[in-house]
Amino acid sequence: MVDETVRENLQLEDDRDLAGRENRLVSIVATGEKTVIYVNSRDQSVALAKTLRKRVPDCATHIAFYNAGLARSDRRRVEEAFRDGSLSCIVSTSAFGEGVNLPDIRHVVLYHMPFGAIEFNQMSGRAGRDGQPAVIHLLYSSRDARINERLLDCYAPERDELVTLYRALQTMWRSNRGKTGDDSFSASDIDIAQMCLAIDARTPVDERSVESGLGIFEELGFCRVSGFDDTRRIAMAENPGRVQLSRSIRYLEGLRSRMEFSAFRSWALDSCASDMLAKVNRPIVPRA
Predict the structure, then answer these.
(1) Residue 17 has what DSSP assignment?
(2) What is the pLDDT of residue 88?
């Protein structure tokens, strides 16, 4: 079955690489119409919401941020306030809208570049689901592409970085066991990243990569991690043996994400506006 409907109510405003994109964003939010602004990190969702509250004071109480770091109850309150009109603008990561039907969004702003074609379609497609006029605003830039690449590198460390991280963890674990007799140790991501630098300055490990690396190692049986943040404890396997990284689903997902973004990047920066709109407002036709 093929849905032959074309969403003629959608427009696409192309302001990629616009020098004054924050000013353009302010003008969109100042309309008071329902707006969702997509950014590429939780920190950015908070920071940009604060900026907009200052720059559009008349709408300050109607602007909120939304990301997966919020408690489920808080996310639900934001969704309901946006639905009933108490909020007119939400600054969010890709987490917003998953499983939520909000038909009357008038503006979708891609302030930062999405991480792939699926994300682009899902974000853009949230505009004007009620059939009324709506606008998709492209405000991202080539600089955002480089930021996305760095973020993906942190969430999916390279093999050499993982080797350095493993050596650092083993060193800290053995040192702590020798001093205290404990079979596990506690250390912050910054502490571990600094140990990586001390072990091999040629292969520095970003502190944001530490959690991802620990997840990969735990999946492979190289370590056990318990607790969170200040209560996190790490216990290393004594002799885990030789294991292929390809056995880690997290590692393979990271590789795939980097490859997908590499392909999407060129399309997102170089395609003409009409082709990009067609990606959103045309039906998806299954291949023969």
Answers:
(1) T
(2) 97
The answer as to whether 253 is a domain residue is no
Chain centroid to CA 119: how far? 10
Q: Which residue has the tokens 């079979």?
A: 183
Q: What are phi and psi of 135, to 5 degrees?
A: -130, 135
Q: What DSSP designation does 16 have?
A: T
Q: pLDDT tens digit string along 101-126? A: 789 999 999 999 999 998 999 999 99
- What type of residue is 210? V
Residue whose pair of structure tokens reads 């891609």 in the numeric block = 110
Contact 189, 231 (CB under 8 A): no
User: 207-220 vs 249-270: helix axis angle to the nearest 10?
Assistant: 140
Report strand pairing: 35-38 vs 89-92.
parallel
Positions of E strands within the chain = 10-14, 35-38, 63-66, 89-92, 107-110, 134-138, 223-226, 233-236
Q: Which stretch of DSSP H or E encloses residue 228?
A: none
Tell me the C-alpha distance between 87 and 263, whole Å: 36
- pTM, rounded to two decimals: 0.80
Residue 111 lies in a domain: yes
CATH number of the domain to which 163 belongs: 1.10.10
- Band (pLDDT 50/70/90 cuts) for residue 265 is very high
Contact assessment for residue 205 and residue 213, using Cβ atoms and an 8 Å cutoff: yes
In a domain, 1, yes or no: no
Same domain? 74 vs 188: no
* Residue 89 sits in the same domain as residue 133: yes
Measured distance CA(85)–CA(62) in Å, rounded: 9
